[in-house]
User: Fold this.
Amino acid sequence: MPDSLLIVLAYDRWGQDAPRHLIGDFAFILWDERKGMLFGARDFSGSRTLYYHRSAQALSFCTTIGPLLALPGTDKQPNEQWIADYLAIPITVDSIDCESTVYKSIEQLPPAHSFSVIDGRISLSQFCEIRPNAGAIRFKSDEEYEEAFRDVFTTAVNDCSRTRLQLGSQLSGGLDSSSVVSFAVRSLKRENKRLHTFSYYPVDDFEDFTASRNRMADERPFIRSIVNHVGNIEPHYLNFPDKSPPFRSGRLAGIARNAL
Assistant:
């Protein structure tokens, strides 16, 4: 069953509450002809993006900003407040204003939110939130805590690995992405599939400035040890010599479900 059909069936069953029942990364828009309503949502953690642009003539949506900037009459003026927030706290750029973007004329649907458009008017609604005081979990031993964590972690990785195609993951030399990769490989073995990993390393003329035990520019030695230990991995090492280096993403542990 393709994801698109799964989303339509969920909407047919639960209506605008459908996003509450969807697990994983998603951003979707559908047209409800009976209600004359455009409806869409973005996943709980915001792994997928959903941007929109308002004008007097139209309300336009896209999962990337580029096509919206190409629309006639779109103002490309930068959002100086967003840029200032990013320069001050680059890892938590969306914590100040979850609806703004780097462009003043482009907005985004916040994570864990849905939207509806009726007669040209858009309204947003939050469908899920974290409640830290929901109740503490108590076990009798460290082993039981470990077992419970493994169960939750396995479920999370498997939910993000659902695909009929090949599966890929980013892999650094740290604990986060290596843990995700290790758990993903277990499930793929049962399907007789290999996991493709993608790792970045510095360009050949890079001069190492990280004179610290806590920082390492080239993580390939650690990555190779993970690949050799876990097994069933098809590694890909990339350094993009013709590209400018991007800022480091905090989502290196995210499973990429795109087809190879």
Observations:
- Residues 157 and 184 are 6 Å apart (CA to CA).
- Residues 142-256 form a domain with the Rossmann fold fold (CATH 3.40.50).
